[in-house]
Amino acid sequence: MLRLTDLKLPLEHTDEALHSAIVLRLGIAASDLLSFNVYKRSYDARKRGHILLIYSLDVNVSNEAAVLLRLANDVHIGPSPDTTYQFVTDAPSEDFLRPIVIGFGPCGLFAALILAQMGLKPIVLERGKAVRERTKDTWGLWRKRVLEPESNVQFGEGGAGTFSDGKLYSQIKDPQHHGRKVLTEFVKAGAPAEILYVSKPHIGTFKLVTMIEQMRQNIIDLGGEVRFNQRVEDLHIENDQVRGVTLASGEQIRSDHVVLAIGHSARDTFKMLHARDVYVEAKPFSIGFRAEHPQSMIDACRFGPQAGHPILGAADYKLVHHAKNGRSVYSFCMCPGGTVVASSSEPEMVVTNGMSQYSRNERNANSAIVVGITPEDYPGGPLAGIDFQRQWESQAYLLGGSNYDAPAQLIGDFIAQRPSSALGSVEPSYKPGVKLGELDASLPEYAIAAIREALPAFNKQIRGYAMNDAILTGVETRTSSPIRIKRGTDMQSINTKGLYPAGEGAGYAGGILSAGVDGIKIAEAVALSLKAAAAR
After folding, report:
1. Residue 416 burial by Cβ neighbours in a 10 Å radius (0-12, 13-18, 19+)
2. Which of 116, 276, 429, 466 has its CA 20 to 30 A from that of 527?
């Protein structure tokens, strides 16, 4: 097969046009094109009204060697790489202690799945509930203002990514095509096949729920064990080597290989790890608000007269501004046609996030508009970022009325530095509800100043972005983990052998796809270590 990249066609092209374009580009007879598959399809929307589709294709032709030789200088034509996943090893034939996977978000899910597929029968310990029970609890906060600290947007089967846009793209380097394995497993579990080739694939919450259940059953069928409501209270460490875990129930489980895929909000677990002298360091993250605009406005600005085309779907955006005070302000986790959701995991705190379904057909677009911060902004040790997050989450709870409503302000009023007293044309989607007023007290002064400067600048990129009636809802503090649990090239903690820090919580991923890829890498490292130990 040949890989043909950067083939451009108009948005409204026919199947015959694609076939003809391949033939023309390769300089072959139509009869010599035996078959082709779309590997990736993206679009170029820089010229509104003249949007182009950009294809990468795997092409089967007659006399492939001759075509490759003739087009050897064309950087967009070459052999198709093998993206088939190859297992690094299989299970030892001798008895072995089963590996433990703590956390069942995307990282833990794929770590457990790959371990199970290699015959290593992992034990998964998830502090939250199964995904359907968890969904009910999450709706309990959104509809009834009742927070379940162990079952919410942050904790439970599927992790925080379950209540998100279900984005499945990343900018990570992936030379071994692990991302393809993630997407392939999702398709096996019921995801739309299009996620294998569209440039910015997404799934949405409702589809993710059934997929996660299917993947869990796959792990169990392969000999793995998935246990819910099992919070890890302590690690057993002997001579800098993990020997097992203690659960909140008091039960102890022996293992020499523990995958730590705990997510970015497991603050009590971070504290326990630090107390056990596992190396933890503070890291940068970002804080800000959720901004909501009419999706129709974003579509029109991005796509012009071609807005609404089924191939394009709801438009997204990516914005960045470098403020005069030295801070960077940028859009994050943009959710086209979605909603702003309550994402608290601790009582009397307000946290926001964005979510959308596969259809992306809600009336508002929302995105985090956040400011980058560093450990210099919250001095005090490796865990100081947690206290910093809590400070602003607690403040948001108070500003919202101390009932899980979120503080909010119209963008026009925020820029003009006046309180908001009434909604305009944009209705906020956050549930339980919002309390209008001023947001200046909800974040540090430098963050407020930077965002206030950035919004008019964003208006130059997307006309209408600084519209008076658009809504800012506070606060977004969980953009990434406030810590990094540092690991070496063997994927193990740099000072605790057998402990494998993984995913977002450990500071090594950001989003579903990168977390899944990290889970695969961790599983491979665990499998190779287990095999080597059994051989000794």
Report:
1. exposed
2. 276
